[in-house]
Amino acid sequence: MKPEHSTWTPSSRPGDPGQPEPPAQLRRIFGLFRPYRGRLAIVGLLVGASSLVTVASPFMLREILDTAIPQGRTGLLSLLALGMILTAVVNSVFGVLQTLISTTVGQRVMHDLRTGVYSRLQRMPLAFFTKTRTGEVQSRIANDIGGMQATVTSTATSLVSNLTAVVASVVAMLALDWRLTAVSMVLLPVFVWISRRVGRERKKITTDRQRQMATMAATVTESLSVSGILLGRTMGRADSLTKSFADESERLVGLEVRSNMAGRWRMSTIGIVMAAMPALIYWAAGIALGAGGTAVSIGTLVAFVSLQQGLFRPAVSLLSTGVDMQTSLALFQRIFEYLDLPIDITEPERPVKLDTIRGEVRFEDVDFSYDDKGRRTLREIGLTVPAGGSLAVVGPTGSGKSTLSYLVPRLYDVTGGRVLIDGVDVRDLDFDTLARAVGVVSQETYLFHASVAENLRFAKPEATDEEIETAARAAQIHDHIASLPDGYGTLVGERGYRFSGGEKQRLAIARTILRDPPVLILDEATSALDTRTEHAVQQAIDALSEGRTTITIAHRLSTVRDADQIVVLDAGAIAERGTHDELIEQDGRYAALVRRDSRPTHQQAEALASVSP
């Protein structure tokens, strides 16, 4: 029995009780930048220096208006004007260096996230991938991490830069006139409140948008693969699939519009108020003068308004950064969900490494269940396959044959008992030893969209051309490859669709021969092939099996007659065991399966009838 195929969903969603609180999540996000704190310190120094230089410019402007021009001091005027020009030049240089360093740091963080998620997924058990749509996984790596690019490449720098600029501007404004500063600051708490409201709203919309993008990615991956196209066209569902995709896209349109418009009017209100602030400052200075207050010089007033504009730009940017951070929290949460996935199959603290592997495989009272509900797929399996021996496992569909084979390469861990190779529990072996020990040839052959040679070298990257050719000859596929225009450089196409089923199977066998594992699992490797192709592939399998411990999961019983031991599984338990002749003599389940397997199909019967006299 194989696991149910259902869509995997994370255990916690944004807003769920299990989700980390924002402060904890922010600490984790800032932790991503910790390896690059040296570079970020340089950015901080550049930002601080840039802010100080920027603040100096309004003071030079005040001196020009209040002293140099009224008193006709051309030398001072020229010096101050040159100082303002140098300020702009220095700021530009600091800005370029700041952007270079911060972008590099941001991209390194992006790289760490991508590789971290990919590495985590590589270590996930097979059950995760049987329950998760491929497009969902791709969307997390591409869309979610891609959506965070602006945040991780510029937000940290923007935060420091704008915060420094705001502090420096406020200090300078207080130095110029504390009364005008108080007028300027009166609405700032309102702006902060508005930005927090907008941030929370966008975070929720972003979560919904990313889920919808993941759904679309899954639809595209499934329906536009070679298999999906074949199924859609042969079933006449191309128009239906297009309509379904259009509906998904329409939902995304609505979410994108909502995301871009969320809080737009409120943020626009902030812009309008800030644009009106200079007029308010001029009005306040005029009212104070008319009421008999201390006069503010023209230079001070112009310099103050200049500083105020210099304050509001980073203040608005700071508020926008806060909104972006709130939005990005939804993306970070989706990535952290994958980074926090529990890994069931791990190496022990002190893994066992075997230099020489004989290949004895033993099952000791093995139980296995795909879920926690107590429904056992395998029950009390006890078997021993001597090194170099052969075991065939047969039985009706759902009896647990494939599941038994999955336990040897540790695609799943047993829930009871042990599986041993050369007397060592597979859970105690290091992953390299286990991968070197066990090779699998399954019914569903997977080939990459690459050349024949590259597909074969996936098993042994350092293999020479001669080794590849030798493996292909043993798998009975060399002559066919040599007949192709590009030979071993021929692209196999996505999932190998440029090759027939038998050719793909022989390529998979050649790949396994190249790896040379002492234990071989054959999971119904010929069940989907016609009789003629099966014969060719069986010859390749015989060459592959020679001298190896072989466990064959068989659908067609004609392929297992010569096995040293045959086991019949029924409802996850061993019903019968013995050689072919012994089991035929018992006239039990195996004999019944053989009789059914030997019965001619309807097509075979018609063919026999057509040649009968």
From TrEMBL:
<dbReference type="GO" id="GO:0005886">
    <property type="term" value="C:plasma membrane"/>
</dbReference>
<feature type="transmembrane region" description="Helical">
    <location>
        <begin position="79"/>
        <end position="101"/>
    </location>
</feature>
<keyword id="KW-0547">Nucleotide-binding</keyword>
<keyword id="KW-1133">Transmembrane helix</keyword>
<dbReference type="GO" id="GO:0090374">
    <property type="term" value="P:oligopeptide export from mitochondrion"/>
</dbReference>
<dbReference type="GO" id="GO:0005524">
    <property type="term" value="F:ATP binding"/>
</dbReference>
<keyword id="KW-0813">Transport</keyword>
<dbReference type="InterPro" id="IPR017871">
    <property type="entry name" value="ABC_transporter-like_CS"/>
</dbReference>
<feature type="transmembrane region" description="Helical">
    <location>
        <begin position="265"/>
        <end position="283"/>
    </location>
</feature>
<dbReference type="InterPro" id="IPR003439">
    <property type="entry name" value="ABC_transporter-like_ATP-bd"/>
</dbReference>
<feature type="transmembrane region" description="Helical">
    <location>
        <begin position="150"/>
        <end position="172"/>
    </location>
</feature>
<dbReference type="GO" id="GO:0015421">
    <property type="term" value="F:ABC-type oligopeptide transporter activity"/>
</dbReference>
<comment type="similarity">
    <text>Belongs to the ABC transporter superfamily. Siderophore-Fe(3+) uptake transporter (SIUT) (TC 3.A.1.21) family.</text>
</comment>
<feature type="transmembrane region" description="Helical">
    <location>
        <begin position="40"/>
        <end position="59"/>
    </location>
</feature>
<feature type="domain" description="ABC transporter">
    <location>
        <begin position="361"/>
        <end position="596"/>
    </location>
</feature>
<dbReference type="InterPro" id="IPR036640">
    <property type="entry name" value="ABC1_TM_sf"/>
</dbReference>
<dbReference type="Pfam" id="PF00664">
    <property type="entry name" value="ABC_membrane"/>
</dbReference>
<dbReference type="Pfam" id="PF00005">
    <property type="entry name" value="ABC_tran"/>
</dbReference>
<feature type="compositionally biased region" description="Polar residues">
    <location>
        <begin position="1"/>
        <end position="12"/>
    </location>
</feature>
<dbReference type="InterPro" id="IPR011527">
    <property type="entry name" value="ABC1_TM_dom"/>
</dbReference>
<protein>
    <submittedName>
        <fullName>Multidrug ABC transporter ATPase</fullName>
    </submittedName>
</protein>
<feature type="domain" description="ABC transmembrane type-1">
    <location>
        <begin position="41"/>
        <end position="327"/>
    </location>
</feature>
<keyword id="KW-1003">Cell membrane</keyword>
<dbReference type="GO" id="GO:0016887">
    <property type="term" value="F:ATP hydrolysis activity"/>
</dbReference>
<dbReference type="InterPro" id="IPR003593">
    <property type="entry name" value="AAA+_ATPase"/>
</dbReference>
<dbReference type="InterPro" id="IPR039421">
    <property type="entry name" value="Type_1_exporter"/>
</dbReference>
<feature type="region of interest" description="Disordered">
    <location>
        <begin position="1"/>
        <end position="22"/>
    </location>
</feature>
<keyword id="KW-0812">Transmembrane</keyword>
<keyword id="KW-0997">Cell inner membrane</keyword>
<feature type="transmembrane region" description="Helical">
    <location>
        <begin position="178"/>
        <end position="195"/>
    </location>
</feature>
<dbReference type="InterPro" id="IPR027417">
    <property type="entry name" value="P-loop_NTPase"/>
</dbReference>
<keyword id="KW-0067">ATP-binding</keyword>
<keyword id="KW-0472">Membrane</keyword>
